[in-house]
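hiii, so i know i said id send this last week but things got crazy w the move. better late than never?? heres the sequnce for the chain we talked about at the cafe, plus the structure i predicted for it. fair warning i was half asleep when i ran it
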Amino acid sequence: MIQKDTLLIGDQVTLSFKTRVPKGGQLFLQELQNPISQGVELVGRPKIDTLSSAGGEMELQTSFTLTSFDSGTHVVPPIAAYLQKLDGSVDTVMFDPGTLEFTTIQIDTTSYRPFDVKDQMNYPYTVKEFLPWFGGLILLAALIWGAIRIFRRLKAKRSLFMPEREPDPPYIMALRTLEQIRNEKLWQNNQEKLYYTKITDTLREYMESQFFIQAMEKTSAEILAELKGKGIEKSSFESLKELLELSDMVKFAKYRATELENENAVPVAIRFINVTCQPSESPLKNKEV
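okay and structure toks below
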């Protein structure tokens, strides 16, 4: 169905075709390129709507919106659709849009009177004329700066009126996150994979800030290889290695960690951070973990 076949250039026309699809079947359209033919362009994507469904059979309407910016008669090539039946067989359905006529606006030359173009009249600008624009730019800049500041504070869940405080150092953030993971009791609720994923992700983020390595993008073996030259004491290095290997086994080899291994995972991570962070005073240095 073509709503109209004679249009002005730049107008849009919608072509619609109806197809009956048997029960369990599907209708697929061929891939359409722009321009769809010489001088004719496809506007948007074709749409397939369900008009009715009775007895398992559906009636579908396929619609295309076309336009042209070239006057004349344009032949739109047939458009193929593929009807896949329940038994796997495929039938080809051809839609023939036909031709479209695009015309330009006719000018009545009998009443048309041309006039010469007048020269533009220019007047000198004054400071008074610039002042409102200058003030408006300052106000706009202030509003943009204020909006960005408010957005950042809301995103960071900070007060809009309290002065900004220095962010916590990475080792404090990591220790706080590990305490939260321990309190979530994930492994006690059969979520061992998530438990070890959170622990190792926290350690990776900490190591990126502390040792300046791309830990989030590396394997456990690659991380350990880079840490060998960072002056980490042997016992802490070995504990970290065992934790990372255990985590990989749980996450990728479906290993079931023992209760003791699960209980020791967070304390091992906390000890590694406390030993390597080198702060003036670690809040968990003397805490039993």
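btw The radius of gyration is 35 Å. thought thatd interest u
miss u guys!!
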